[in-house]
Amino acid sequence: MALYTRVSGSVGVITLQNPPVNALSAAVRQGIVDMMDRALSEPEVKSVVICGQNGKFCGGADIKEFGTNMSGPALIPLIDRIESAAKPVVAAIEGIALGGGLELALGCHYRIAHSKAKLGLPEVSLGLLPGAGGTQRLPRLISIPAALELITTGRHVTAAEALQLGIVDKVTDRNTLDEAVKFALSVAGKSLDLHRISTNPCPHPPDVDAVFETAMQRVRQRARGALAPVACVQAVRAAATLPYAHGMERERELFKGLFTSGQARALQYYFFAQRAVGRWSTPGGARWDTSKPRPVRRAAVIGLGTMGRGITVALAQAGLSVVAVETNEKQLTEAKQGVSDMLERGARRRGVPPALDKVIYSHKIQAVADVDLVIEAVFEDMELKKAIFQQLSALCKPGTFLCTNTSGLDIDELAAQTQNPELVVGMHFFAPAHVMKLLEVVYGQKSSPQAVATAMQIGSKIGKVSVAVGNCRGFVGNRILKPYLEQAFFLLEEGATPELVDKVLEEFGFAMGVFRMSDLSGLDVGWRVRKAIGLVAPEALTGPYARVREGHRYSPLGDLLCEQVRFGQKTGRGWYQYDKPGGRVAKPDPWLHRFLEEYRAQHGLVARRIDHQEVLDRCLYALINEGFRILEDGIAAGPEDIDVIYVLGYGWPQHRGGPMFYAGMVGLNKVLERLEHYHQVHPDVPNLQPCSLLRKLVASGSPPINKWREVIKKPHSQL
Ligand SMILES: CC(C)(COP(=O)(O)OP(=O)(O)OC[C@H]1O[C@@H](n2cnc3c(N)ncnc32)[C@H](O)[C@@H]1OP(=O)(O)O)[C@@H](O)C(=O)NCCC(=O)NCCSC(=O)/C=C/CCCCCCCCCCCCC(=O)O
User: Where is the 3-hydroxyacyl-CoA dehydrogenase NAD binding domain (predicted)?
Assistant: First the structure.
């Protein structure tokens, strides 16, 4: 909807009304068309202002309309109509002008922005391009290189930067509408010739071809198979080479190709999934909208290794007071320096003062006595963590939430060490903790809804996307990772190389293949976990039992590498070789290839040629199958939780939506059929046995992903 009012006698004001972000739904578009007609037909009206209600100009096209039968007036002629109007039209931009919202503003003759407004063309992150003239008008307004950068990254800019770039004519700290009305009065009757952006020539840099070539190289490198960034470059190129009308045709053609693509569907699903995870629920009935978080003013972090330092920085940067505890004096001294450096670097980047005074350091655990929430981040050792939880339970004031940053240990076992297990939850951060956007909030059997709600709230306060998940070994992310890693190891045994497996996964779009990722995170991490649960043989086993654990196939390859102190990048050797310990550039290692050959010979394995499809099928479908088990077990409330965790924490390509979305795109019956096939070939690998929820979904006609929850039967919990 759009509201029309007349102010100061001669200014027609059109207010977009569609909460929460005034998206351009059919009703809003119709409203703008009708109100523009009215403003242009009233002789008393000399100029027009377009604004949005509730301090938000416009969040762009209504994404919920995509994929439906779109009705109502089309956006492009609507914007053209504004631009060609004989009366000046001023956009009064408060809050946001994003996507179609900014394109609407670019159709206006002038733009006034509030100093706190954010502007951008983020369509690329939805698998689209700015298809309402944005790719043709923006380069004409701010130059080709600047427009290319904004359109291909989807970056939001501040009002100050928008002014500098020339996107807006004025920035104000005052009431934006009042300023826009004043401005509209001042330009009434003046020539609009220079202010119809589409009629202006597109300024060319002297090296225009090189600019496009570089931009194309950059997006192809960054995009890893994503279509939209490439199409964005092509569309801007049309602005540089074609007259406006032809450029618009090219924009439309490219837009159409993207609009119906699987990638756009995946990215739009992922947009809503990231928001849906905030509406958490547990199998016991605790919910986001009925569980009230408790305010946390002071928090403590126990253990200042890499994770503890990152968590301390994340909390302090969000304005929380932090007591940072490390009992090892040497480590504490190093941590003080490390945390201060990180805070200073972060502050420089954000242009704010460093939050150094937010952190108090101590080598005594007693320093946590009066904090509201503790995050334990010591070494991944159950006995050590148990001892700390016993101490915390005795030391902390009543009601203090006790959280653990374990990446997979049993939350209930830790909670059992305390007098108030309802106050215990997991807060699983991802390294580097002050950078990575993901937080798994893990509820145990006895965690109170308030403890879950508080951890979720802290997560959003420190800028994380928090996902509430149930307690099981590895929670969601690391549990799913296990069968994926396992398949990768089995493929090596059968004849693949780390280079082949990584190539296939990186071509699929993963930021890093499984072996390069393992080298980066350290092979010793998983080795310690496998040792703790008794999977690692005490001495090199030979014979048939070397590759069997608990009756199932097991690959000791990772263990054997660790025995050679090949922990990955940190030791300069892992699945690849590096020029030095800590080196980053992975190079194929002839030693590893010889080692694999000897290993196969020792175990009577005959290497075979493994094709790309098999690598992809086995790694991905094993992972997806575990995702279905997680849903079946009620560890994740819905597929969105798994997808968000996997994209944000494990490098799954966003343009493929996440593993569960991908399964739906491939077709659940195809996933089932492939798993059945591979399980038949490898009957000793239980992770390839299709899970019953997958079978049930296929039997229910493979419903779309937003209907899966109806098929999932939720198990009982004590929450
Ligand atoms: C920054 C935000 C705007 C706000 O952030 P925040 O305050 O944190 O709040 P959120 O939690 O994110 O959001 C609050 C709720 O609002 C919902 N929301 C947000 N934006 C939109 C939107 N644009 N549409 C619908 N709903 C929206 C959000 O989901 C939340 O609700 P819920 O919790 O999920 O219930 C932030 O939200 C944000 O960044 N939003 C996205 C901004 C964006 O990306 N905008 C660009 C949208 S795409 C666009 O504008 C495209 C323009 C070109 C259109 C061209 C023509 C159209 C179609 C022609 C069809 C042609 C077919 C061709 C085929 C053929 O011919 O055959």
Answer: 299-471
Assign a CATH topology to domain 298-476. Answer: Rossmann fold (3.40.50)
Centre of ligand 1 from the C-alpha of residue 229, in Å: 18
For 639-682, what is each residue's pLDDT tens digit?
999 999 999 999 999 999 999 999 999 999 999 999 999 999 99
Residue 425 and residue 404: Cα distance in Å, rounded?
A: 7
* 237-270 exposure pattern, b = at least 16 Cβ within 10 A, e = fewer: bbbbebebeebbebbbebbeebbebebbbbbbbb
The tokens describing 330, both together, are 């040497």
Q: Is 383 a catalytic residue?
A: no
Q: Write the DSSP assignment of 572-620 as a string of letters.
A: TBSSSB-SSTT----B--HHHHHHHHHHHHHTT-------HHHHHHHHH
Q: Is the C-beta atom of 131 inside 6 A of ligand 1?
A: yes
CB atoms within 10 A of CB 391: 17
Helices (H), 364-474: 382-395, 411-415, 449-461
Q: What is the pTM of this model?
A: 0.95
Instruction: For residue 64, give the ligand 1 atom closest to its CA.
Output: 25
CATH 3.40.50.720 residue window(s) in the chain: 298-476
Where does the chain hold its CATH 1.10.1040.10 domain(s)? 496-602, 614-711
Q: Are 170 and 178 in contact (CB under 8 A)?
A: no
Polymer length in residues for the chain:
719
Q: Is the CB of 133 under 6 A from ligand 1?
A: no
Task: Encode pLDDT of 160-207 as tens digits.
Answer: 999 999 999 999 999 999 999 999 999 999 999 999 999 999 998 889
Query: pLDDT tens across 98-150, in order?
Result: 999 999 999 999 999 999 999 999 999 999 999 999 999 999 999 999 999 99
Q: For 59, list phi and psi in degrees, rounded to 5.
A: -90, 10
Cβ contact 266:657 at 8 Å: yes
ipTM of model:
0.97
**Which residues lie closer than 8 Å to 493 by C-beta, 6 or more apart?**
547, 555, 557, 599, 600, 603, 605
Copy the structure tokens of residue 710: 């109806």
**Architecture label for domain 496-602:** Orthogonal Bundle (1.10)
Ramachandran angles phi, psi of 552, nearest 5° = -120, 160
CA distance 68 to 358: 49
Q: Which part of the chain is CATH 3.90.226.10?
A: 2-259
100 lines ligand 1 (CB under 6 A): yes
Contact at 8 Å (CB) between 631 and 712? yes
Superfamily name and number for 614-711: N-(1-d-carboxylethyl)-l-norvaline Dehydrogenase; domain 2 (1.10.1040.10)
Question: Does any ligand 1 atom lie closer than 6 A to the CB of residue 505?
Answer: no
Q: What is the C-alpha separation between 227 and 209, in angstroms, rounded?
A: 21
Distance in angstroms (rounded) separating the CA atoms of residues 643 and 469? 13
Of 123, 326, 614, 640, catalytic: 123
Fold of 2-259: 2-enoyl-CoA Hydratase; Chain A, domain 1 (3.90.226)
Active site residue 632: no
What is the C-alpha to C-alpha distance for residues 337 and 326, in angstroms, rounded to an integer?
Answer: 13
